[in-house]
Task: inverse folding
């Protein structure tokens, strides 16, 4: 929970800018036995993580070894986020460092991909930092040719190679977004909504499960807006939940969230009982200015349905503080909604003006010290509640899905069916389940003892 958390996005028709020839196909001759190395650095949301997974598949297929530091890499791919200005500043810092390493002959090529690649700013960055390849989010597949693979046909992102065989996988079900929230750059960089056909999604999930995937996360900017030939997100979710042993989805929009989807979460044993439903503000006035398309009361009602249908579920949200025009009364309304909805966690963002969005031109900025105070007040309210709710789990036995294997301290990181993050003392591997008693709890995580046989 911090203002430093990056976020989701999707693309417009983008151009490739391949200054030099492909690595390994001319300008960077590869001798027999020479191992080419690539480092992928991901900024931002799960969709970017997923895009990075697909790029990873391409570089591995092209014979690269993946490395984790720039110094060891022939090729560095920065897969970027454009949602807030601090995300862009961070990438500029990395580009500066990469230029230095390139001058020293350590790094050979740099590629900039993702949402910054899709933005108007990319041409300036390419000139300034002498970037070799710039790709947006709709033409990530063009990386294939750059790394010496056969040219892939143009297609929309979901058709790119996936991550078969790993214990958990993201599956994109839609790209883009048809909303026009005042503050958000996503529609500009990711384009309008494109829904992937249901059969196509189910086939991919079946293939993943057959090759060992145990956890499928359905991805999209507004996953619950998915529709196709009269079928809606709930129908897709149900089909996937029949096929996959464990399913989650993100991100949802309150205007699209149907009651039957909320009930399905409670009914289907394979769906993780965690709902991420960004509210942004608790003030009707601000929700209108933001063009969110719902009022706070409607949001509260949805949460009421969720809590009733999924009593043991967890709920998270996104909140923006300091959007232009936000008054003290609007802020109080947000605090009131936080109290009423009793979120288990929240991503709280300080408003960041993005050129090209409506909010950037609205004026009436909120003073930075006021934004900071409001940020802390919302954070405190969320954390107090999350801490109290997490305490209720202490003493109980939970089935924990291991997401990351144990580190040096002997603790693995897992997730309960209710969507709580748990540290558990086990050597179990990612994808395994263990049963363990919750011994203590903080505001963000539960702590379990050794697994119970
Ligand atoms: N599609 C999701 C929705 O409608 O709620 C969210 C996608 S957005 C990329 C992720 C989060 O980033 C948003 O929910 C919002 O809280 C935050 N965000 C987007 N633009 C922002 C901005 N200009 N300043 C601060 N936060 C922003
Ligand atoms: Fe951005 Fe709004 Fe679309 Fe979410 S729904 S991606 S916040 S424009």
Result:
């Amino acid at each position: 929970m911090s203002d430093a958390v990056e976020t989701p996005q999707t693309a417009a028709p983008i151009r490739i800018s391949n200054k030099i020839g492909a690595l390994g196909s001319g300008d960077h001759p590869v001798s027999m036995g020479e191992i080419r190395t690539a480092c992928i650095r991901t900024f931002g949301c799960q969709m970017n993580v997923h895009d990075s997974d697909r790029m990873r598949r391409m570089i591995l297929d092209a014979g690269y070894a993946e490395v984790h530091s720039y110094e060891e890499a022939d090729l560095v791919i920065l897969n970027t986020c454009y949602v807030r200005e601090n995300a862009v500043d961070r990438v500029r810092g990395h580009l500066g460092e990469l230029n230095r390493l390139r001058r020293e002959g350590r790094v050979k090529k740099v590629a900039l991909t993702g949402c910054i690649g899709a933005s108007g700013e990319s041409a300036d960055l390419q000139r300034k930092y002498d970037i070799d390849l710039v790709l947006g989010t709709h033409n990530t597949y063009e990386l294939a040719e750059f790394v010496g693979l056969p040219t892939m046909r143009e297609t929309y992102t979901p058709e790119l190679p996936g991550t078969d065989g790993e214990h958990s996988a993201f599956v994109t079900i839609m790209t883009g977004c048809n909303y026009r929230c005042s503050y958000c750059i996503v529609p500009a960089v990711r384009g309008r909504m494109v829904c992937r056909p249901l059969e196509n999604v189910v086939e991919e999930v079946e293939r993943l499960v057959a090759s060992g995937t145990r956890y499928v996360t359905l991805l999209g900017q507004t996953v619950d807006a998915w529709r196709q030939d009269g079928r809606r997100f709930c129908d897709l979710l149900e089909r996937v939940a029949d096929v996959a042993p464990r399913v989650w989805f993100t991100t949802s929009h309150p205007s699209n969230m149907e009651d039957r989807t909320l009930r399905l979460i409670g009914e289907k044993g394979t769906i993780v009982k965690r709902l991420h439903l960004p509210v942004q503000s608790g003030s009707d006035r601000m929700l209108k200015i933001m063009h969110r398309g719902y009022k706070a009361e409607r949001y509260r009602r949805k949460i009421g349905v969720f809590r009733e249908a999924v009593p043991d579920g967890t709920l998270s949200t996104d909140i923006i503080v300091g959007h232009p025009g936000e008054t003290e009364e609007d802020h109080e309304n947000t605090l009131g909604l936080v109290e009423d909805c009793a979120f288990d966690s929240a991503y709280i963002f300080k408003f960041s003006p993005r050129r090209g969005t409506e909010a950037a031109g609205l004026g009436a900025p909120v003073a930075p010290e006021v934004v900071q105070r409001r940020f802390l007040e919302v954070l405190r309210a969320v954390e107090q509640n999350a801490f109290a709710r997490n305490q209720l789990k202490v003493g109980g036995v939970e089935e924990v899905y291991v997401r990351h294997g144990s580190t040096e301290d002997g603790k693995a990181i897992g997730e309960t069916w209710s969507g709580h993050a748990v540290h558990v003392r086990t050597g179990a591997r990612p994808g395994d389940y263990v049963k363990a008693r919750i011994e203590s709890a903080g505001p963000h995580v539960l702590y379990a003892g050794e697994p119970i046989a």
Remarks:
- Confidence is low (pLDDT under 50) at residues 1-33, 154-158.
- The first helix runs from residue 46 to 61.
- Residues 177, 179, 181, 184, 186-187, 221-222, 253 surround iron/sulfur cluster (ligand 2) (CB under 6 Å).
- The radius of gyration is 22 Å.
